[in-house]
Amino acid sequence: MKTPICADLGIDIPVFAFTHCRDVVVEVSRAGGLGVLGAVGFTAEQLKQELDWIDANMGDYPYGVDIVIPQKYEGADDMNADDMLEKLEAMIPQAHRDFAEKLLGDHGVPPFSDESGPKGGLLGWTEDTARPLLDEALKRDNVVLIANALGTPPVEIIDEIHQTGRKVAALCGKAKHALKHKQAGVDIVIAQGSEGGGHTGDVGSIVLWKQVIDAIHPTPVLAAGGIGNGQQMLAAMAMGAAGVWTGSIWLAVEEAEAEPAEKQSYFDATEEDTVRSRSFTGKPGRMLKNVWTDAWEGPESPGYLPMPLQGMVTFDAMRRTKRYAGVGECQKVGFNPVGQVVGQMQQVETCRKVIARLLTEYVDALALLNRQMP
Amino acid sequence: MKTPICADLGIDIPVFAFTHCRDVVVEVSRAGGLGVLGAVGFTAEQLKQELDWIDANMGDYPYGVDIVIPQKYEGADDMNADDMLEKLEAMIPQAHRDFAEKLLGDHGVPPFSDESGPKGGLLGWTEDTARPLLDEALKRDNVVLIANALGTPPVEIIDEIHQTGRKVAALCGKAKHALKHKQAGVDIVIAQGSEGGGHTGDVGSIVLWKQVIDAIHPTPVLAAGGIGNGQQMLAAMAMGAAGVWTGSIWLAVEEAEAEPAEKQSYFDATEEDTVRSRSFTGKPGRMLKNVWTDAWEGPESPGYLPMPLQGMVTFDAMRRTKRYAGVGECQKVGFNPVGQVVGQMQQVETCRKVIARLLTEYVDALALLNRQMP
Description:
The structure is a homodimer. By secondary structure, chain A is of the alpha/beta class.
């Protein structure tokens, strides 16, 4: 498609695929979109392995990396990551740990046996843990975009990324946050409506997109939240979006590394089966509604801790229910962030098929609009 | 525009304007759209006056009437409206009445002096009160559409309307409700996403529209919730909507009969200033967030009563805050149902100007899509 963002980033179709799976990154980029690897939760060593694999398999195509680059925490200057982790751990009430552990136990979720992952729950959300991830990404020639999933990245980090010739994107759920991003120097704003999976506000896409596009014009805006087919993509482009940022639809593609039970949970869900819940990270995020999300809202709940504490409590739950998705009643207490578009997800497709389908549906819908031309 | 629904209803542009103001009905229809008078809250006598005025001023243009045609209440057969009202009144705890009255008093809302309106709060939401409204509407030659704002209308009522040669529309917020409507014989389904004003579910427009359109194809679907300009209209049409159902944008047009203070409250609001609240009718509806909506969620709140009881408690608050919108702190406790699109509403325009703007923005946005054609 002949859009400025396609020319800028060297892609054929302005479909951005957020995914934690390296295979999906490669397949989407090779099909003409831009694969973006969600690196939160990886250690620097793990990220290096993933990016090595991507570079070995990608050929000449561009891709992106998504990191959470936080503003500094108050008082964090004098502390290393281990000290901070310890200090934060001490702030977690035992009742929260017990509540989470009991939910897992009651539903037969096995303990995690592999301790090679990142330490309990900071998930790369402090500058100390994010920095090595960013450095690793910036070593890669084919990385054309660094995306920031939460908040406005620090100005000096944006400058640093710009000096390497890459673009910076950042997510927002409110028009005023988009303005903040732009003022800080962000090149591309991703406006994610309430329909979307993961951290999301409560303004719906059809309103948010318009508000953000108008607020920061001519800065390009990627539309996110509720895009699963070519008609929804056309709707976003009709409003002046520079492209679409998609996540949910890549969770169950053939190339996605996930247990069959997890993929099936998406096919089984309707558009009514998600909920915006603070139960995993402490901030409202959309995910499949299940026993876990209900329990944290229920009368026995100890309440939610603020980020990053809630995520430290639930980190073990996240990885155990992901790893053992098909075991016991893991799906009842599992962490499955996904948007309302899950109701449209019906079957396993390849990434290439999804991209081709988006394009076909887009072209067909545009032809219909032209036949109805006022 | 050359769409089937335009041909069916004899309109030029598939923009449906829901409004409680007769002037807006006339102006929108005369500008090529379809004005739809929201008749809930009118007595039959009041509705007769409004429709007489519309018929005298409309000329040859079509319009619609929106009524709530409920399924029968259990046990309602043996009761007339007065008996039912009395029985329902007896079910309302005094604490709820006191809580509402205290909020009004604390914010200087004057008592209502005019008792000519309908009796306290059933608002035409029982068959006994809805029937005379429907009969009145069916006397009018230019009424081409009867819309039902809540639930599936009874099959025998749909048949009766069909026999007079008119179409029946019904709102939904879930795909499964759209299917129920279709099975009952409804001709046109209005799919209203969570962004919309008034009663609304929690599925966002961009997802809901797609799901409903697919679920009941080829039954026409009007897209509602978040449509305030031509780009948003194009987005809806891109997804295969037969037209758009709009409400919020008509609240502050020049022809809308509302106190300046009420119109100003919309211009002052951003897309973040609405909330889905049960505080007025007992069912979740989107409205301006204010002291009233906060108080009913607060620690002193007696909780929400089910429909229609909550509406009977708040009926007096609704009409007092509407009538005396500019007095005291009425806006802090007023009932202002409106969608998130309120953030786009900036100034008073005429109905004709709004329709012209929608068309211009639509055509411009479509031209841009064609330039970016894949």
